[in-house]
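Exam revision sheet. Question 4 asks you to relate a sequence to its structure. Input first:
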Amino acid sequence: MLYRRLIWLAALACLCPVFARAQTYTLEQVIDLAKRQSPAYYQAVNSREVRYWAFRAYKAQFLPQVLLQGTVPDYNRAFAQIQQPDGSFLPNFLNQSNSDVNVFVNQNIGATGTRLFANSSLRRFDNLLPDLPQGLSRLQYTGSPFVLGVQQKLLGFIPLKWDQKIEPLRFEESKRAYAEELEAIAVRATERFFDLLLAQISLRIAEQNRTNTDTIVRIAQGRYNLGKIGQDELLQLELTLMRAEQEVAQSRSNIENTSLNLRRFIGLTDGQPIELAPPNDLPNLTVAEPLAVEQARANRQNPIAFQRQLLEAQRGIAQARSEAGFNLDLFGTFGLSNQARELTGLYRNPNNQINLNVGFSIPLVTWGRNQALRKTAEANFELTKNVVAQAEQNFEQEVVTQVRQLRVLRDQVNITQRSDQIGQQRYDISRNRYLIGKISITDLNIALQEKDQARRSHVDALRQFWRAYHELRRLTLYDFALGQPLIEKADK
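Answer key, structure tokens:
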């Protein structure tokens, strides 16, 4: 038994470091998790589904619609006023049941705004009075075996015609909006990644500074006891050590907050610690401004949105002009109808049924209302054209500015990386020179501050570069490293 317990204790001792070990993530892994399981990703998916089913509902308007409608039964037992042939009314007791069923088929034609329809109806009447006058039947069928009809707007506004132009653009716009949202998630994930990375690096800096300062304080105490330094210099070193302790505590608190923010954003639910790997390897690419603008125009939703907005403004003009002008509508049906005492008789020798209706509307006196509506629509169209023209200029300028900024930030990363190396070397030299009494504590503190500032500046430069890189991907929906549009990946 003792031997087995020792084995279990040894196994647990080996496993505990594994459980406590932090999981290391790269920037690419964090972005991938955010695009696959973050709450923002699921919101983007839900928005895409809403837009997809809205487009399916629009497309269904141009498919045959079949409707079955009926009433089984409609029973009525009461006194009612029945109109007589001479126009007078006499109260009669009714005890009857009516049942009906109708089948409707509708087909819309968007290009012309035509509605074709067909229907078949059947109605059954049961007279349930115990005593019926001679010659009256207790059962009677009426109905129309089939009726064909058309409804056509000859002059006026046709909504379906405009929907055929606008709705496909709106759907394509929504697909590209989904791809842009995925890249926007990458930008936000990059921000949270570097928030935590900077906190972790700040903790390492603080812990290293505390260790170095503690060593220097111990040496300084010995030198003070020997009378080689004054008490003020020793006290200053002790204050520096206390500030280092405070920075360590503050850095640990920042790590807890930034780690929680990152975990929530990318959808991590386990309690395993996170360790981030600095993305020092920059992508080796050269982005040409004309290519970036070309891809932005080809892939993003904005150019399609500009086209849709102009069409919607033109639709408003067409609708306003229609309401202010002459409108002509045609409605016609042709079919067969009959009545019989038995069901089969309904379909023997039916009678023709024709209905033709031509309606028109002409505004005579509107006190300027229709003109005001038309002028409002025309002014809105001019406003939309100007807004779209300005938005197109801003659209291109935003892409070009982002390309140029990416170039500057790449150079800034290289400069700050070299500054970080020089700052560390200078501090090491200053520390050694202080230990042999060649420089003052003030010079050592300056070297320490410059070292820390150079390290944080390098991390901040990395943050700005990677954020700009993913922002450029969002603005163009194009992967410059692989040379392919991102809209294709988003559709998969």
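Marking note for examiners. The mean pLDDT is 83.
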